[in-house]
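Contributing new records

If you add data, match the layout below exactly. Sequence lines come first and carry their own label; structure lines follow with theirs. Keep one chain per record. Anything else will be rejected by the validation script.
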Amino acid sequence: MKKFLQIVVAAAVALAVATPTFAADKKKGGKGGPRTITGQAVCPKCCLKDGSTECGNAIQLDARKGKDGKEIPARVIYVVGDVAKDNHSLFCKGNKRATVTGTIKREGKGKDAKMVLTATKVEEAKGKGKGKGKGKKKKKDA
């Protein structure tokens, strides 16, 4: 009986030590991970008349309607990083849809706040649609 009690106590101590370690491995709410954004690839200086003295990279998201039916204006997310600089020709030409993957953070406060995406992957978007579907499914002949 004494051996059994020692084993139970040892297992309880091991479980108590291991539980906080497993909890730390989980992501909190999915924030901070890589995100993929699709929109119009634009140059803030050339297309948006941002007042910048040099060209840059940005993704302009389409305007949409909110839950209350009011229109939400188009948002601009600035794209930075070496991957974005290598693909500047995609942004500077304008009028092309692009898909950018990376981490987003907010810089600045109030009206001066900007959303900045540090790119890990940039490519020209393949289609216009929002969904992943290709249309109606074909029926199988029995």
